[in-house]
Structure formats: C-alpha cells, structure tokens
Amino acid sequence: MQTAERTKIGLNIILLLNLLMAFVTIWVLLRMTPAIKDILQRNDRSLQASEEMLSFVGLYDVENVSFGKELEQQFRNSLLRAKNNITERQEKIVLDMISGNYVRTFNGDKDAKQMIISLIMELTRINRAASFKAEAKARQLGIAGAWVVTFFAIGIFTIGLIFKRKLQQNLITPFQEILRVISENKKGDLMRRCTGAHLSKETKKYYSEINELLDLAYSKLPKSNYFL
Q: What's the CA gap between 161 and 199, in Å, rounded?
C-alpha cells in the first residue's frame, strides 16, 4: 500500500528532523559554553595577577629593604603567572616590558615605578577588553544558535503542515468517504458510491474496487428489492 509507505516515510523524516534539531541545539551549547568560559577564566587570572603586581608596587617602601625584597619576590611570582596565562597577543609585549623594568622599580627608581604602573594598567585594559570581546562572542554564538534552531523549527513545522495535508487528502478523507458509503448502503441507500475530487491514483483504485463490489452486490439483489 503506497499511501501507508509514504505515511511511514513522512513520519520517519519528521522524527529524524526533530532529532537532528536536538543534536544541533546541543552542539551549539556545548561549543559555546566551554570556549567562552575558558577565555573568561584565563582573563580573570591575568587581571588578578595585574592587581597583585600593582598592589606590590604600591606597597614598596625603599626604606624597608627586607620588606621590599619580599614584595619584589611576590611581584615576580605574579608576573610569572601572568606570563604563563597569555590570551592576547598584546599581552606578551607589555609583559616583556614589565619584565625588563620591574627590578629598577624595586631599586627605588621612581621613573621606572611610574612606567611599571602604566604598563600594568595597560595589561589590565587588554584583559578587560578581551573579556568584553569574549562576552560579545558568546552573545553572537547564542544568537546564531537561536537562529539555527528557529530555522530547523520552521522547516519541521512546514514539513509537518505539508505532511498533514497529504495525510488528510490521501488517507483520512478517503477512509471517511469509504465509511460513509458503507454506512449509507447498510441504511438502504444502495446507489451510494465512493466519489471525490483531486484523488490520487491509489485512492481512485480503491474507490473503483469498492464501487465494483457494491455494483455486483446490487446486481445480485432480487428484483423486488430494487426499489428499496
């Protein structure tokens, strides 16, 4: 039965499209969340290291040599963490400049100290800009993912409407017509036959077979029943 086969194929297509849409949605979310989270976390670590370096420079007291050496070591540790956590190309340039000048700062060079503070502020700006960029990328990916899912949903909805129309035309309406004809024949309307417009070849064949059976049954009735 071709109609049954087409109905089965149509249902399978709709189910597969729904499954595909689910996979696409999951893929978009899985691709978006970890990448953005990693960028934000790494920029946060760089920002924390920058804040630490800035505080160590600010706390430095040239009169207290022992305390100054301790701050210099802590500054060096924070600088190393920042250098091991580079996410932007500009960071390396700034960090290299800090590496080449921070010792002078802890030796009491005020000009070097001012320059180091400016470089740390620039490093902070770079990482904040990278965080904003990552956030914007997350929004773009979210919007793109929403449009992809919307596209699939509209496609599935359209296919569903077409499938519903075909199902109504080729299966539901013909069966309703057959049931009405049989019911009316049982009630005494022996001339009632299956009819309809815009029928498929398969439906026309079924109607023809049923009508032939009804004609045959009618022809075998006693003549006294012809006018029932």
A: 19
User: Could you list the pLDDT tens digit for every one of the 228 residues in the chain?
Assistant: 566 666 667 777 777 877 777 777 777 666 666 666 666 777 788 888 888 898 888 887 655 656 778 888 899 999 998 888 888 888 889 999 999 988 888 888 888 889 999 999 999 998 888 888 877 777 777 777 778 778 878 888 888 888 888 888 888 888 889 999 999 998 888 889 999 888 888 888 889 999 999 988 888 877 555 444
Could you tell me the residue range of the domain that residue 198 belongs to?
A: 168-225
Burial pattern 152-185, b for ≥16 Cβ within 10 A else e, equals beeebeeeeeebeeebebbbeebeebeeebeeeb
Residues 11 and 62 in one domain: yes
Residues 99 and 49 in one domain: yes
User: Do 107 and 218 fall within a single domain?
Assistant: no
- My answer on whether 98 and 34 are in the same domain is yes
**How many domains, the chain?**
2
